[in-house]
Amino acid sequence: MDPHERVIQHFHESIRTKQMAMDQLASVIVDGARTMARSLQQEGKVLTCGNGGSAADAQHFSSELLNRFEMERPGLPAVALTTDSSTLTSIANDYAYNDIFAKQVRALGQSGDILLAISTSGNSPNVVAAIEAAHERDMRVVALTGKDGGQMGPLIAEGDVEVRVPATVTARIQEVHLLVIHCLCDLIDQYLFNPE
Ligand SMILES: O=C(CO)[C@@H](O)[C@H](O)[C@H](O)[C@H](O)COP(=O)(O)O
Ligand SMILES: [Zn+2]
């Protein structure tokens, strides 16, 4: 094992995946940002969820909305459903781990809100359940997925947007998800605060 070579290989694969994603995903990312901006313009909010690295991504996105991305502007309403350990542990303890996001979506979600659902496999049962809960609440879903979209793919309904990264390795998919999140933040700011 040559560690230097392995690092170079990670960079090469990340660059290649981002290039493929750029070619395939630019317009669907624009759709996702437009869907979110429209909701925010109409007093909606964004709820975010995911597991592991995707939980970090969910929090990353919500903090950039609540505070700011690159532009000076008022905070925007977003809630990461991954952060309240009392709520997460009580739902997991009293009901099931699979319900940790769905129960929060049913409590906080209102018609016209957005769920940003992040899963590299599309198969995390708690994220799948959150999408079902969001649809019950008449919310739209912006899903960041990868691989074959997993169980989340078929749940994408009219008005929802799925950004499916064309890759199978979790780390590569996550690296693109972060870039997509920054594109969404930038476009939301443009739609809301710099319209033509
Ligand atoms: O960050 C990583 C791997 O790079 C892990 O923490 C990863 O996010 C976790 O294994 C997740 O549970 C994977 O869930 P998902 O992306 O399939 O929904
Ligand atoms: Zn990771």
Strand content: 5-15%
* End-to-end C-alpha gap: 53 Å
CATH topology: Rossmann fold
Radius of gyration: 17 Å
Number of strands: 5
CATH homologous superfamily classification: Glucose-6-phosphate isomerase like protein, domain 1
Helix content: 40-55%
Strand order of the largest sheet: 2-1-3-4-5
Given the structure, what is the number of helices? 6
Keywords, separated by commas or semicolons:
alpha/beta, Rossmann fold, five-stranded parallel beta sheet, 6 helices, globular, binds zinc ion, carbohydrate derivative binding, EC 5.3.1.28
Quick recap of the structure?
By secondary structure, this protein is of the alpha/beta class. It contains 6 helices and 5 strands.
Layout of strands and helices, then pairs:
Blueprint: H1 3-41, E1 46-49, H2 53-66, E2 78-80, H3 85-94, H4 102-108, E3 114-118, H5 125-136, E4 140-145, E5 161-164, H6 170-193
Parallel strand pairs: 1-2, 1-3, 3-4, 4-5
Helix pairs in contact: 1-6, 2-6, 4-5
Zinc ion is lined by residues 53, 171, 174.
Catalytic activity: 2 D-sedoheptulose 7-phosphate = D-glycero-alpha-D-manno-heptose 7-phosphate + D-glycero-beta-D-manno-heptose 7-phosphate
InterPro entries: GmhA/DiaA, Phosphoheptose_Isoase, SIS_dom, SIS_dom_sf, SIS_GmhA/DiaA_subfam
Cofactor: Zn(2+)
